[in-house]
Design brief:
The chain is of the alpha/beta class. It is built from eight helices and 17 strands. The strands form three sheets. Strands 2-1-17-16-14-3-12-13-15 form a nine-stranded mixed beta sheet. The longest helix has 13 residues, at 321-333. It is globular, with a radius of gyration of 21 Å.
């Protein structure tokens, strides 16, 4: 059994990035070499020169929806907060609900827009466990249309206590985001600019897109004492046959599959769970932890992650436990910026 306390570390609060850098690609990049056990400091803008022609960069093209909801309970006028999770059937939402007192089935919540103007009502139908409720919006329109009107950028709580600024509408989104469905950004991708992607392609490095909608598990640290006891929340993802064909050819030619973010790692490794990499679509609850053996990924670009998180466990499993532990110590010593709007690490 592996204790979650093995994945704890102390981080000064002032190293948690509260705002993105003016230029996305100016983020520092700690380049970690697993073979030599060493690292060097670069910037994300240097990434094209750090990769080799024939390598393939894999990006998650999910789009963050304005999933954070604010309002009040119609009966009591008590404050209510929610996080839209998904819409499993038309007209029904799954919402993470937070309020004082006990919310009862049949109550209504009045949603407020970004200017605190009253809007539509949400009928709270039934609790589903772990603070999640089934709810029905009492208005016409798709969930995307309603969230665009009444939702906010779902920043994690360590960024300004989740309070969005107008800059977050653009910056808490990758420049290549296409398919709406995430309640958190695939943050390694936040560093990319069109210019960096253009330079990547100019140097003969391939770019592929997969989709994994980041879910509620991103906001929840491991609460169990051991890794073996932790249950992952499932997330929907898709890998096309065309992408699979290109990644297979890449590896057969001796080049590297470079995952941008832990979401890409989990998705591609899920698609290869039965042996070889295959076209895949569905829900994955894959928890990558020691002694996992990677089937697809050769290199990883990722942010610096929270203590006791499944993301940190994945990164240390991929990069080597002691090496990544030391790299984190160095990053703290050198005052790298941490978490969603922070700096990045490239593990080769």
């Amino acid at each position: 059994m592996t204790s979650i306390h093995d994945y704890d570390y102390d981080l000064p609060r002032d190293l948690i990035a509260q705002h993105p850098l003016p230029n996305r690609a100016d983020a520092r990049l700690l380049v970690v070499d697993r073979r030599s056990g060493t690292w060097e400091v670069a910037h994300v803008r240097d990434l094209p020169a750090l990769l080799q022609p024939g390598d393939r960069l894999v990006l998650n093209d999910t789009r963050v929806v304005p999933a954070r909801l604010l309002g009040y309970r119609k009966q009591t006028r008590g404050r209510w907060e929610g996080l839209f999770l998904d819409s499993p059937e038309e007209g029904i939402w799954r919402v993470l609900s937070k309020t004082r007192g006990k919310l009862r089935p049949g109550e209504s919540v009045v949603l407020q827009d970004r200017l605190a103007r009253e809007g539509i009502e949400l009928a709270m139908l039934a609790p589903l466990g772990e603070g999640i409720w089934a709810a029905r919006p009492l208005a016409s329109g798709s969930f995307l249309e309603l969230l665009q009107r009444y939702g906010r950028v779902p920043l994690p709580p360590y960024i300004r206590d989740g309070k969005m600024l107008e800059e977050d509408v653009e910056r808490y989104q990758t420049v290549y985001a296409r398919h709406p469905g995430s309640v958190a950004a695939p943050t390694a991708g936040l560093h990319f600019t069109p210019a960096v992607l253009e330079e990547v392609r100019r140097r003969g490095i391939g770019v592929d897109y997969v989709t994994l909608h980041v879910g509620i598990g991103t906001f929840r640290p491991v609460a169990t004492e051991t890794l073996e006891e932790h249950k992952m929340h499932a997330e929907w993802g898709s890998v096309t046959a065309e992408v699979v064909e290109r990644l297979r050819a890449c590896r057969e030619s001796g080049r590297r599959v470079v995952a941008v973010g832990t979401t890409v790692v989990r998705l591609l490794e899920s698609a290869a769970s039965s042996g070889g990499l295959r076209a895949w679509e569905g829900m994955t609850d894959l928890f990558i932890r020691p002694p996992y053996r990677f089937r697809v990924i050769d290199a990883l670009l990722t942010n610096f992650h929270l203590p006791r998180s499944t993301l940190l466990v994945l990164v240390r499993t991929f990069g080597g436990d002691e090496l990544i532990r030391r790299a984190y110590e160095y990053a703290i010593e050198q005052r790298f910026r941490f978490y969603s709007y922070g700096d990045a690490m490239l593990i080769l």
